[in-house]
Amino acid sequence: MPERPDARGGDSRGSTRNDTRRVLVVDDERSIRMLCRVNLRASGMDVLEADDGEAGLELARRERPDLILLDVMMPGLDGWGVARELAADKNTQDIPIIFITARADPADRRLGEQLGGVGYIVKPFDPVGIGELVDDVLTRLERGEREQLQRGISTEHEQ
Amino acid sequence: MSVHEREDRALRLQRVAELLAEAVTPQQVLDAILTEGVRAAEARAGAIGVLSDDGESVELLAQQGYAGAIMEDWARFPVSAQLPMSQVMRTGEPLFISTLTERNELFPELAQRGQEGSSIAVLPLAVEGRVFGAMALSFADEVEFGLERREMKVALARQASQALARSRLFAQEQALRERMTFLAEASELLSSSLDYNLTLRQLTQLAVPGLADWCAIDMAGENGEIVRLAVAHQDPEKVRWAYALQDRYPPKPDQPHGVPQVLRSGEVEFFPVIPDEVLEEAIGDDEELRQIVDQLGLRSTICVPLTARGRTLGALTLIAAETHPAYTEADLQLALELAHRAAVAVDNARLYGEAEKGANAAQALAYVADGVVLIDGDGIVRHWNPAAAAITGVDETHALGKPVDEVVSAWAALTSHVPLAQPGASGTRPVTVPLVLDGREVWVAVSGVDFGEGTVYALQDVTGERALEKTRSDFVATASHELRTPLAAVYGAVRTLRREDIELSEADRTTFLEMIESEALRLSHIVGQILLAGQLDADAVELSVTECNPAEIAAGVIESASVHLPEGITLRLNADGAPSIMCDENKLRQVLVNLLDNGIKYSPDGGKVGIRLERDGNGCLIEVSDEGLGIPSSEREKIFEKFYRLDPQQTKGVGGSGLGLYICRELVERMDGTLAVDSEPGVGSRFTVALPARP
């Protein structure tokens, strides 16, 4: 069951840049969700959670978060599938996605890039810096650097 | 003058006229004038000169009766010179000089150069009022040129003029006809075959000896080298010798004259008379070469470029040596025409060859399993073979001539990671890239070569290989993947607990500590399985066989599982009639724990999970069943392979080490048992362990 968003997130479409950042975490691992939640909240962000792809998709459509932290290997609809569905829907295609995954293969990174990801975090990762990372990505997106972020997914990590 | 003398003169003139009428070629005319004509004029010697083509010089054609090397000494002299023939050609008036003194006064150069003589008569050769030459007559003694004598000489000159003009015209016409015939033959030859090596070789043979003593064709090689295609001479022995000579003295590309110069500049090189300095330059200090050149007797040469579409493909060389007269402007025109036709033929043959090669290549590419795509400098698709169409799902007709980004929208993403090799360089390693096409995902190994005017990409569909590779994932990669998630939890929890900038609630702290504990256990379990799989691989697992009761072991396993049982799962045990057997108790327990865990894990929506035991002869059957997701029949054997994982779509992504069933089967088989599976997707699965009474 997806956890309820923070009370203040009631009006789902009212998100503007002055509002508190609202981040959706989609991961079937409870521990990963919790790590993200605690650390994102520490950075002053609101956190929505979903424990599988379907729930994540539904929540993303309904709540239109500012950003999604998306696991790849999940029961049912996996992270790639979620990203594809979001990209196919014009109401959700602009929601930036950062993949969080145990898949460290360069080919997976390229798939992440092709599916429109703006970030790619390989497990294990330091959750303490995650709020700052999300903030940085959102700031760069506001500056119109989406393409650079996308390309960075596969280029920054290649030897 | 006596009547007899007069009649005699008339007779002689008539005899000359008859001879001239019979003469056809210029040489015959000259012979007639200089023998009978000179005799008729009662002269000692005679010579005939004509105006050169450019009108600047007098060229001595023939002489009769003069001493010394007059033909060499006076071969060619300016029309403007103060000399008798020059003056006559300038004025068109006959010149009669009776004494040597008078001659030397008028023409000091003759005296200076020691030209012997006495009386001379020089008469213009003209037709239709245009002077084209002069006839000189020299007499043995001093002659008084009376009116009749003068008239007789003028009449002789008129006859000679007519005959010579007519014969020259005839010769010109004949030469023109010969040239036309030659050009026609050459054209037919050039169009007879696309093998221009052959046709050009035949062309040089056609050119000798009519057009040249030597005829050669050299081609410009791709790397600036000069390739002699053909040399022709009437004497095959000389041709062999010429090739040998070429080997010994290969042309230097920077040579100031000859073929290298023509290939470099694309300009004609024409020497009506080869200047000594040109020969000297070619010879240098090589005495042997000097002898060879002297022996050749090179006289005159034309070297014209074979030019097509602005490119100099080669050069045609004509050389007049032992037999052929020096070349004239007309010969040059013929050579240019010939070179033009030859160049067009070569160019056509090459174009055809390239087109054919292109067609052959396209045909070959049509059957190549790899996709081959050619993108020009503007990003337009220029080639798209059937394999490329199969991989991308876009037909050739929908791809050719279009911007590649329109043909495949993900093209930029597909190729941006592909390092481009330079032509000829050893190819770069293909990069495997996913290509997201509408509705499907293809893994493509891409390599590319940048050839300046565009890029050729080779695409290989490795979706199958990649799937295979996935199932056979190497130990380290897969193991590390399995370890990443629990590691992330442990590391993340520790990092978060150690944050000093936030105050964690007591509940969160407890959760994090529990997380560390359980994930560390999970890590340990996975590491244990990896180690065990490694030992099984190395055949390093030892069995400790004792008499044991499978029903008791099963009960213990059920009991352990019931402690952390997920919601909706009910455990069942049916152990009636199970016999005691000889086996390794710990290993059997490990197998049952694994199978029961799987049953629970793959029943996300709950249901009954149970173990049932029964006697099987002296042995024992143990069934572990669930009402969970089930396993498609195509996967039922693969699940026992090491690191094989069901597609997350089919298993709803249930995680694990990928080693459990591999380990189970390996252990059961080591106890001489079997492990089989029976399943129906959506209904459930049943794993059956059959163990003998003793291993």
Describe what is shown at a glance.
The complex is a heterodimer of chains A (159) and B (695). Chain A has 159 residues and is α/β, with parallel strands linked by helices.
Describe the structure.
- The complex is a heterodimer of chains A (159) and B (695).
- Chain A is α/β, with parallel strands linked by helices.
- Chain A has a single domain (19-155), classed as Rossmann fold (3-Layer(aba) Sandwich).
- Chain A is 42% helix and 15% strand.
- Chain A has 6 helices and 5 strands; from the N terminus they run E-H-E-H-E-H-E-H-E-H-H.
- Chain A has a 5-stranded parallel beta sheet with strand order 2-1-3-4-5, with helices on both faces.
- In chain A, helix 4 links the parallel strand 4 and strand 5.
- The radius of gyration of chain A is 14 Å and the shape is globular.
- Mean pLDDT of chain A is 85; it is low at 1-17.
- Chain B is of the alpha+beta class.
- Chain B folds into 5 domains: 3-174, Beta-Lactamase (2-Layer Sandwich); 191-352, 2-Layer Sandwich (Beta-Lactamase), CATH 3.30.450; 368-469, PAS domain (Beta-Lactamase); 472-537, Signal transduction histidine kinase, dimerisation/phosphotransfer (DHp) domain (Helix Hairpins), CATH 1.10.287.130; 546-691, Heat Shock Protein 90, CATH 3.30.565.10.
- Chain B is 46% helix and 23% strand.
- Chain B has 24 helices and 24 strands.
- The radius of gyration of chain B is 53 Å and the shape is rod-shaped.
- The chains are: A alpha/beta (159), B alpha+beta (695).
- The A-B interface holds A 28-29, 31-32, 34-35, 38-39, 42, 52, 73-76, 78, 84, 102-105, 107, 110-111, 113-115, 122-128, 151, 154-155, 158 and B 410, 413, 416-417, 432-434, 436, 441, 443, 466, 477, 480-482, 484-485, 487-493, 495-496, 499, 501-502, 504, 508, 511-512, 515, 519, 604, 648-649, 651-655.
